[in-house]
Amino acid sequence: MFHCNRLLHFTNKATIGTNDFQRITMKKASHISLSLSVFVTATFVTADAYATHSWANYHWGRTTNPLPLELGDNVAANWDANLTLAASDWNISDMLDTAVVAGKSNPRTCKPTSGRAEICNAKYGNTGWLGIAQIWISGDHITQGVVKLNDTYFNTTKYNTNAWRNLVTCQEIGHIFGLGHQDENFSNPPLGTCMDYTDPDPTPNQHPNQHDYDMLAEIYTHLDSVNSYILSDGTDGGGKGGGKGGKGKPLDIDWNNPSEWGRRVSEHIYERDLGNGNKVMTDVFWVEGRGNSHNR
Ligand SMILES: [Zn+2]
Ligand SMILES: [Zn+2]
Predict the structure, then answer these.
(1) Which range of residues forms the domain containing residue 44?
(2) Co-location of 27 and 101 in the same domain
(3) Residues 201-245: tens digit of each pLDDT
(4) Ligand 1 centroid distance, CA of 97 (Å)
(5) Distance, CA 282 to ligand 1 centroid (Å)?
(6) How far apart are the CA of 35 and the centre of ligand 2, in A?
(7) Counted domains in the chain
(8) CATH code of 185's domain
(9) Residues 79, 142: one domain?
(10) How far is the centre of ligand 1, averaged over its atoms, from the C-alpha of 268 (Å)?
(11) What separation in Å is there between the alpha carbon of 130 and the centre of ligand 2?
(12) What is the mean pLDDT of the chain?
């Protein structure tokens, strides 16, 4: 039911900012035939909730493209190849120019750094999750993010494969850009994208597919008046505007603890409201048998 139909690949009216929506609507209007547009208008709300796979309207603010997002490398040597591969896969998108840089976090806590993403692995314990992506939101803008890869499970026979490592690394980093899943039924035939849940064989889903790049193009075609990313050399971004919202929170929250993730808004998404238009969204990749993901 979450299968992503290319013909219905339009953004959900209900979850998108007004300005962005107008831009996207005008852009899309030139792409769709008259007959299709009538159909789409009629089915807009119901069909589109599943047809798009953006994560709400969350995106990094940037005044120019591509987005030069830094991915902090806090992973151990046995994850480096997976991280490098995922970063280069996502960089195929014209909208992205990510770089793997020295990490600034303790992998165990994986605290966020304003204006960039920190990628971490550790034995986070028998948490039920294989990986999580957390993004801090100010308005619609992502201001920082973390990815955690749970070695407690990746060290087990089932998950200790390059294919599983690639799938989860690629998917969690995809969430950092504001992408959601293309398909959330583990039993469906694989779509050939890491933004697709799959089990037992992750082999076909280790990389993004064209649909992910198309979605990124939709999300990032418009430009913003502020940059919410910050480069480590400080020569760009600057953190003005959108960069301020999600950072500087003095709250010392243990983000490894699911009870701190806030309201569960779906099977795999949690929302923690920080007030003043700021929140933290968590997307969870449950291990088999947890989070009801396999019971459909
Ligand atoms: Zn924007
Ligand atoms: Zn996910």
Answers:
(1) 6-51
(2) no
(3) 899 999 999 999 999 999 999 999 999 999 988 755 544 444 444
(4) 17
(5) 20
(6) 34
(7) 2
(8) 3.40.390.10
(9) yes
(10) 25
(11) 10
(12) 81
Q: Are 2 and 185 in contact (CB under 8 A)?
A: yes
How far is the C-alpha of 92 from the C-alpha of 35, rounded, in Å? 33
Residues 270 and 222 in one domain: yes
96 C-alpha to ligand 1 centroid (Å): 15
Question: Residue 60: nearest ligand to its CA?
Answer: 1
If asked whether residues 44 and 157 sit together in one domain, one would say: no
Task: Identify whether residues 26 and 71 lie together within a single domain.
Answer: no
User: Tell me: the pLDDT tens digits for 123-134?
Assistant: 999 999 999 999
Q: Who contacts 168 (Cβ-Cβ below 8 Å, separation ≥6)?
A: 130, 131, 149, 285
| 47 and 133 within one domain | no
- The pTM assigned to this predicted structure is 0.79
Q: Are residues 43 and 119 in the same domain?
A: no
What is the Å distance from ligand 2's center to 175 Cα?
Answer: 7
Tell me whether residue 293 is in a domain.
no
Residues with CB under 5 A from ligand 1 (ion): 224
How much distance in Å is there from the Cα of 140 to the middle of ligand 1?
7
39 and 112 both lie in a single domain: no
